[in-house]
Design brief:
heterotrimer; A alpha/beta; B alpha/beta; C alpha/beta; A: alpha/beta; Rossmann fold; 7-stranded mixed β-sheet; two-stranded antiparallel ribbon; C: alpha/beta; OB fold (Dihydrolipoamide Acetyltransferase, E2P); UDP N-Acetylglucosamine Acyltransferase, domain 1; 4 domains
Chain lengths: 300, 343, 519
Amino acid sequence: MTGLSTLPATLYARMYFIRRFEETLLDLFAQGKLVGTTHTYIGQEANAVGIVDHLEPERDVVFSNHRCHGHYLAFTDDAFGLLSEVMGKATGTCGGKGGSQHLCRGNFYSNGVLGSIVPVATGIALAEKKKGTGAVSTVFLGDGTLGEGVTYESLNMASLWQLPVLFVVENNHYAQSTPIELELAGSIAARGSAFGVEVAELDTTDVAEVHETAGWAVARIRETGEPFFLVLHTYRFSPHSKGDDNRDPGEIEKRRERDPLQIAGDRLGPAEREGIEQAAEQRLAETVAAADEAPAAEAA
Amino acid sequence: MSAPSHKRCVQALNEGLHEVFAERDDVYLLGEDVLDPYGGAFKVTQGLSDAFPDRVLTTPISEGGLFGVAAGMSLRGLRPILEIMFGDFIALGLDQVVNGISKFREMYDDQVTVPLVVRTPMGGRRGYGPTHSQSLEKLLLGIPNICVVAASECHDLGGLLANAVDDDRPVFFIENKLMYGRPNRRPEEGHIGELAVRETGTRYPALTFSGTDFTEASATIVTYGGMVPIVLDAVTELILERELFCEVVALSQLLPMELEPVFESVARTGALVTVEEGTLTGGFGAEITARVQEEAWSDLRRPVQRVAARDGIIPSARPLEDAMLPSAGDVVEAVVALEAVRS
Amino acid sequence: MLEIVLTREDANTEFALLAEWLVEDRAEVAQGQPVCVVETTKATVEIESPGAGSLVQLYDDGIEVELGKTIAVVAESADELETAIARREPRSAAESKPTDSKATKKAIELAERHGIDLASIEKRGFITEKDVEAAIAKAAATAGPSTQPALAGISTAGVSLPESLDLDEDAGRLDEGFFESLRTDPEAFRALSSDEKIERYRENGAQIGEGVAFGLRTILVAPRIVVSPGVAIGPDGTVVCEELVAIGELTQFGPDLDLRCRRAYIGAGVWAGRSIRIGGGGHRDPWATLAVGDLAFIGDEAFINVCRPVLIGREAFVTMRSMIVTHNIGHSLLEGFENRFAPVVLEDRAQLGLGAVLYAGVRIGAEAIVASNSYVVGDVPARAFAIGVPAKVTGSAAHTLSRSRQAELARRMVDELHELLALRGHDVSAVSDGDGRGFDVEGTRVYFTPSYGGGGDSPAVVLTLERAGDVPDGVGVLDLLGRQVHGSGGIVLDSVREFCRKRGIRFEPGPWRYQGGLI
């Protein structure tokens, strides 16, 4: 966890880098330099950055979903591995085999089938508990994932067996193109409490708030060894994938007034902010150049 | 009447589990109703939770989730054994198998292994009806990067199970409901009963049976699991009634398919019959037939015959179930039919 | 008496597996003691004894028992024990498994026919027809002085081999110098007359019987020569055997015989036509044995290759231009080309049609028929009819005739014989149906009667399906089904016998040669 004095700058730097990384991906995609598909995290950066700052990459485990770049960068800071992975390069995190949705590095995993990952994260927590490592297993869900049945099997087992799982629901209000009103009934938070899991719910794009609540959640898990259900209402500015956006542009504009980057950036002085941004741009440019030059993945 | 001369298969598996748990402390078992005194629906886990209370977990009825839990445990260095009460229920976990368990190692570029074992009984002939009697191995045969092991009563069951636990690959360990209560008949001096037996030295061995000491024979019958005793009965009948000798290859490793013993036998016999209890279409027999014709076309002198369940449900009523599932009589018929086709 | 009942625990199951008895039958058990393991729908359960006493098992373990049935009783007194034992269900046939026997059906049948005790065959594994055949051969070998090393490994079941296989080791052994001269200068020997040749053979150790005739330029070259009385070999014959040639009584070969092999055992009464070729590639091989049973027939221009043993059974027919091969030759067997060396066996009374070919390794069962021009690559079972290229079994070679049908055919034979004799210019009476269908020829009555009860006018030749009485002097009786000749009858009997022979009816005792007569 970052020290208090440097916290706003650090969080901003991480969020800014994720934003610019994702925007760059979309540019590279337009240039035909990406393989397959990608799901960007633009607009939700405060969640990944705010939560992951409380995790220890050497001990804790993160299992993410198809929209995993933000979580991955926040947890591993491995921009080159991720970029070259999505560019189909041999130097990618998984040698080009996984692509955008299937990442693995250290204690970070992601997979592309909604819901599938939740019991796996639960099993990871069970293993870590049995091994006595004290690790927290964090799994990132979306509102769409709540339509998958195994999510509830997992909540049941995590609660039943008192497993150190942090269930994070990033409700971005859309399951691909379907608005939440058409895909989800009832209360999200009650889904956690129904299983006897402690719940916290936030409707904010302010990384400081996310950071604070996530800190509480992780602390509770470490203290009790039991699961925690963290509901974060959020919004993605970018399309689900690329160019598949039928949302009302006015709605997106309105949401952009609460751009997490804006909120976090406003807390810094102009010089500090500019310095962060320049450093990020430079790092990104170098990363793109390096990934571009890296050898393509080839079949053995 | 008297005590059986061999231990029963369920005992062999049970002892195998106890040994594995005693040898390795990274092994866990999860399943429904596995705790003592109940000890699992088929009693394979009897005594295990008393002996190893921290490593035997009774679970909710959540097969889909449990496959994922086991995957997560294995990703983190443990060796979970997942007991699925009836093989039919693996369908609930197939997403985990297809999209996770089988993929993690390769899609994560060999950074992880997924050493888990799914133990489950398959097979009918108990009147349990359409959803508790199936042999669904063929659903697994199309999934790359997993290992499907189907033990028969003539295999070293405890040893096979220990090998599955030691395996770094995900292993489906298919048991058979009827097998549990039968004696675990192992070769003695190279024989089981009147038949000579050869066993491969592989991790999951294939057994080849011959009534002619591996000289000439009319056909090779390849099968596995619960069909093995039925095929051996058929082969005995063919010998005694007609002096028609067949070699039987009882595979225990169904996937990845390693068919050397089948190719070797077909080189001696020139004919092949595949026998499985699952339904016919797109099954074990179909895949083996394709591979044998690729590898050993020149050895085949007759068209391959397949014996399997008919493509339908397994009814509960005895006469209907019997009509559905392949019998020793069906195997005899297939071999006799082969004899009528001379190329 | 306390009953242990398999209770029905759920609605969907009718049977349970009685997996294992935990106590011996009739063992003393205590109340609450687990006595057996039963596998039901979703559980394997142990069943406890309801009380103390002697447990009597009513079913074996490993079988399915209908729920609701009593599987055991606990007898609390000696009386109860007796009653309980009486309740044991007799085992059904289905439950007593066929695997109790390890001998095949064919083996059991063959053993019964030959009086072989299956328990005397020591073998790990199933006892098959071949094992019984080996036991028969072994029994025969230990009974007689000679074994048959030349045929080791080949089943002689169904093949009656010629007596010469049992000859003493030195029977007919030639003086070495003489043998050498035969080999090095055959032409000089060929030029001799039949009697001169026979005399030279005899002087030098060969066994040559009386009445033997070797045709012009015919020569036999072998270290051992045993030729029985009455053998005739036509002109231009060449017989070269590395070890032995033995020919049985009254056997005759037509002209232009070429017989080359390591050992030739030709039976008695064999009739062989002209231009027969026996030998071919590998005829000097250690396995190059030819054995031809008594009364066999080998047609003109037949070809028999003998690099591996060829066994031709008694009364077998190898008809004109048929061909038997014991090997083929071609490109490398490692490249997948066929390269086969294997014996051929024609069992007793089997028939090989005109121009038929037997490929290496085949066995034609007793009394089977291979149709003309067929190409046989697989075994033909006994009494089967096989036809085609490749030959396939399409039916049976023989049909069972009724007694009245047999009598009708015999009467027709009488009519045909009558017609033949008349056409030949013999003085024959009209056919009459008195005591039996018949006629007089040359002062002898020839007639058929279904059953010969003995006696009758003399002289007479009687054809019958059954001899039931004594045969007086001057009467010859031909038992057509028993294939026996009784009494005497001179040239009329000989002529009728020859007439029957041409219809496939060969009489014992054989061999026999028709010396000429009325037909």
